[in-house]
Write a structure and sequence with these properties.
Chain B: InterPro entries: BUG, Bug_dom1. Chain B: Keywords: Signal. Chain B: Belongs to the UPF0065 (bug) family. The structure holds two protein chains of two kinds. Chain A is mostly helical. Helices cover 74% and strands 1% of the residues of chain A. Chain A is built from 22 helices and two strands. Chain A has a two-stranded antiparallel sheet. The radius of gyration of chain A is 22 Å and the shape is globular. Chain B is an alpha/beta fold. Chain B folds into two domains: 182 residues, Bordetella uptake gene, domain 1 (D-Maltodextrin-Binding Protein, domain 2), CATH 3.40.190; 103 residues, Periplasmic binding protein-like II (D-Maltodextrin-Binding Protein, domain 2). Chain B has eleven helices and ten strands. In chain B, strands 1, 2, 3, 4, 5, 6, 7, 8, 9 and 10 form a ten-stranded mixed β-sheet that branches. In chain B, β5, α6 and β6 form a beta-alpha-beta unit. In chain B, α4 packs across α11. The longest helix of chain B is centred in the C-terminal third of the chain and has 22 residues. Chain B starts with a helix and ends with a helix. The chains are: A mainly alpha, B alpha/beta. Chains A and B meet through α2, α3, α6, α13 and α17 of A and α1, α2, α3, β6 and α7 of B.
Chain lengths: 505, 314
């Protein structure tokens, strides 16, 4: 049980008063940058790196861990309350969370997000501690063709899960896919659809699109309604805490979200978003009342939020075991390690066990700290909804603009923000769902690149896509997810159809 | 609201230009990458060594550094307090992106660090030496897949040069581009590709752990502490160094240029900078003045040649 002893020792290190203070600073800062759209944990850690040079390794890594988890959590707050995802991984949270907040259930939504994040963070951090070496072996089996199959599965489940009309959902998805091909093609280095504008060469930033479509589009929509806006937001209806029913409906999605998010986060090309998409789709399929989805189903907040935090811990698996950073934040944390002459990689667990276990222990502490910090704040956050609408939306507009400019000081970026904001407004007016556009922008390049890589490696042999067992299984699941609803629809004249009809509105 | 307040200060601090700065360093990349780390190390050492009182780093990411370069060249003209970090990747990106602004539009001051390319295969691979890899390449160039960083980048250019030196048609190489050496690493470890190529630092931990086999490095001479032959020893006349440099704004007077060069030289010779190089594992490849200018011209010409050979530049 050497592992366990190391973990206890790590907890001892992390529980020193000074280190607890660093953890507190970290989670507070992390939550703050997570809340502000555009500024992510990556930039924050980069800014703090020179400052922490003076600290001891344990202290600074603990602070980074706090920022990392805090950032993952903070994004959900604005998603739920303001329909403005601070990070791309909390886009899905906005779908159900904001509907809940408008129905006066912002408190339970924030609580299930906070507790779900805690549960997921706890399980995933323990997973990182005990099974990281095995997870990473599994992750390495995933080559381009397996990733492509995973993307196909994500497309199929996600596109059917968003919105009530398949046609509108798919239209929105294809808008996103079209936007995703803008910029330099990664495999050949050639520019596509950039029309000679150098700022477009790197493609369209996901956070810019998400903030524009959600925040700016929403603001314009509300402003256009003027005084006669129909939905009077009720800040609080019933308890601001989770009821017994909320707990009963939340705990399974938390666990499912964790088990979806952690392995996908651990995959070198996984990322946090895909886990949240798949979790949302899974919850919608498994829910007892799927008709509530789109109108504020708590499962749709609990699952994706858990997946989001679990994948944050998952990202550390390749970082610690392979020295392979899979997100920008992980890349900077790697730089943080190197600052102290440590090289993450297969030997790190053997050569610097105290530090690795100190980090894992500090993740546990940061996770706990987040819960302590955020649960009492829920009452305060919910008050945000009582701010008069003109002030609230003026504030949203300002923070969205400031965040975008802060992340990338460029006039083009601001222009894109406004242009996509108008697009988001138009789509709202004509009843098109917003989320699939962002989903298309995120999944499109991944699917395209992995498909082309797989075909390049096989020198054009298409059969390679089906001959790997993992890819084949994923594709079969995707096919089943696509075909089974069609069969049910064709066969059932009674119950099934009625339920589907109930879904339509 | 406390969070909003904190965050807006943070945003404000980054969005506003710093008027009190002695130097503003543009890192033409996102936080976390090599250029960003170079810029932030420069910031730390310049302040620590008392060369400059106040140094700010600003990230202007995009398109292999050409966005930052273009913005720097137009906005900082004649400003002796502005610096930009750049490197070999920029040379390729300027050509592939047909960037209107080139390195001729700024004032290159000095090359600071560099990293050599490493060619690796999975430990279980049948390929034991560079000669084996070249033989496979000659037999069927398409069957040898190379994983490395972005298309047209240093890794891609190095593969093109290797193919050319081995007498293989460079347009036939099967190069699989990843967003960086790290992502490529996963593909190599998973034996998805035949071989991998990237900066040695990306592979170091795996090579030491024995999960990757290092078969060659792209330096002119063997590197201290690295047990691998050079490409030259393997019969391929190829030397590639992924260097990083610092440049000043265009339109400086000779005195201003000399002052910046003196500051950079002081930095490069300082104990603080040497310490940074050691902890980060960067090679010291300080080169300044006319020698650097000549080397730069040589690199640009060679890169243009190979990018044409690969077919990325027409």
């Amino acid at each position: 049980m050497a592992t366990f002893e190391f973990l206890l020792q790590g907890l001892w290190v992390a529980a020193q008063p000074m280190n607890l203070l660093y953890a507190l600073i970290g989670v507070t800062l992390g939550t703050a940058v997570g809340v502000l759209p555009g500024i992510g944990p990556a930039l924050t850690v980069a800014l703090l790196l020179p400052v922490t040079y003076q600290l001891d390794p344990a202290g600074s890594l603990i602070m980074f861990a706090g920022i990392y988890y805090g950032g993952m959590y903070g994004g959900s707050t604005t998603s739920i309350l303001l329909n403005t995802p601070g990070e791309s991984a909390s886009i899905v949270t906005a779908l159900e969370g904001n509907k809940m907040a408008r129905a006066g259930r912002g408190g339970p939504a924030l609580a299930t997000a906070a507790i779900g994040s805690f549960v997921a963070g706890l399980i995933a951090t323990l997973g990182l501690a005990f099974i990281a070496p095995y997870i990473v072996k599994l992750a390495l089996v995933f080559g381009p063709r397996e990733y492509f199959a995973l993307m196909v599965l994500a497309f199929v489940t996600v596109s059917s899960a968003f919105g009530d009309s398949t046609l509108r959902g798919l239209t929105a998805l294809f808008v996103g896919l079209a936007l995703s091909v803008v910029g330099i093609d990664q495999l050949t280095g050639q520019a596509r659809l950039s029309f000679g504008v150098p700022e477009l060469l790197d493609g369209i930033e996901v956070t810019t699109l998400a903030v524009a479509m959600f925040a700016i589009g929403e603001t314009l929509f509300i402003a256009a309604q003027g005084e006669k806006g129909p939905d009077k937001v009720e800040a609080v209806r019933g308890s601001i805490w989770m009821s017994k029913l909320d707990w009963a409906r939340s705990w399974k999605p938390w666990l499912r979200g964790t088990f979806i998010g952690f392995p996908i986060g651990a995959m070198p090309a996984g990322g946090a978003e895909i886990g949240t998409f798949l979790s949302y789709a899974a919850e919608k399929r498994l829910a007892k009342h799927p008709e509530e989805f789109g109108h504020g189903a708590i499962e749709g907040v609990a699952g994706p939020e858990a997946a989001n935090n679990a994948s944050a811990a998952g990202t550390l698996v390749p970082l610690l075991t392979l020295g392979l950073p899979t997100t920008a934040t992980a890349a900077i944390m790697l730089a943080g390690f190197q600052q102290y002459g440590l090289q993450p990689g297969p030997l790190l667990f053997a050569t610097n066990p105290q530090l690795v276990w100190g980090l894992i222990a500090s993740l546990l502490i940061a996770n706990f700290m987040l819960l302590v910090l955020n649960l009492p704040l829920i009452g305060l956050w919910v008050k945000l909804l009582t701010i008069p609408k003109p002030w609230l939306y003026a504030g949203i507009l300002m923070f969205a603009t400031l965040g975008t400019i802060g992340a990338n000081p460029s006039v083009y970026e601001l222009g894109m923000l406004l242009a996509f904001g108008l697009l988001g407004y138009a789509m709202r007016v004509f009843g098109y769902p917003i989320a699939p556009v962002v989903v298309g922008l995120i999944l499109g390049p991944l699917a395209e690149q992995q498909l082309r890589r797989a075909l390049a490696i096989s020198q054009g042999d298409v059969s390679v896509l089906f001959t790997s067992p993992i890819a084949a299984v994923l594709l079969v699941i995707a096919a089943a997810a696509l075909i089974i609803p069609l069969i049910l629809r064709a066969r059932g004249r009674g119950e099934v159809l009625a339920q589907l009809a109930a879904n339509e509105d | 609201m406390k969070h909003f307040f904190l965050a807006s200060i943070l945003a404000g601090a980054m969005a506003l230009p710093a008027y009190a700065a002695d130097y503003t360093i543009i890192a033409p990349a996102n936080p976390g990458g090599g250029w960003d780390q170079t810029a932030r190390s420069l910031q730390t050492v310049l302040q620590q060594e008392g060369i400059s009182g106040n140094v700010q780093v600003q990230n202007v990411p995009g398109a292999g550094g050409t966005i930052g370069l273009a913005q720097f060249a137009s906005q900082q003209k004649g400003n002796p307090n502005a610096l930009i970090v750049g490197g070999y990747v920029m040379v390729g990106a300027i050509l592939t992106n047909k960037s209107p602004v080139t390195l001729k539009d700024v004032t290159p001051i000095a090359r600071l660090t560099g990293e050599f390319e490493a060619i690796v295969v999975p430990a279980a691979s049948e390929i034991k030496t560079m000669a084996d890899l070249v033989a496979a390449l000659k037999k069927d160039p398409g069957a040898v897949s190379w994983a490395g960083g972005s298309a047209g980048g240093t890794d891609h250019i190095a593969v093109g040069l290797i193919a050319k030196a081995a007498g293989v048609d460079p347009t036939k190489i099967n190069y699989i581009a990843y967003s960086g050496g790290g992502e490529a690493l996963a593909a190599i470890l998973g034996s998805q590709v035949t071989a991998g190529i990237s900066g040695y630092g990306e592979f170091e931990a795996q090579v030491k752990a024995g999960t990757l086999r290092l078969i060659a490095v792209s330096s002119g001479e063997r590197l201290a502490g690295i047990d691998a032959p050079t490409l030259k020893e393997s019969g391929l006349d190829v030397v590639v160094e992924n260097w990083r440099m610092v440049a000043a704004a265009p339109g400086l007077t000779d005195e201003q240029k000399a002052a910046v060069s003196a500051d950079v030289e002081k930095l490069a010779k300082s104990a603080g900078w040497q310490e940074v190089l050691k902890t980060k594992g960067w090679q010291d490849s300080y080169l300044s003045g006319d020698a650097f200018a000549a080397q730069l011209d040589k690199d640009v010409a060679a890169t243009e040649g190979v990018l044409k050979d690969i077919g990325l530049v027409k």
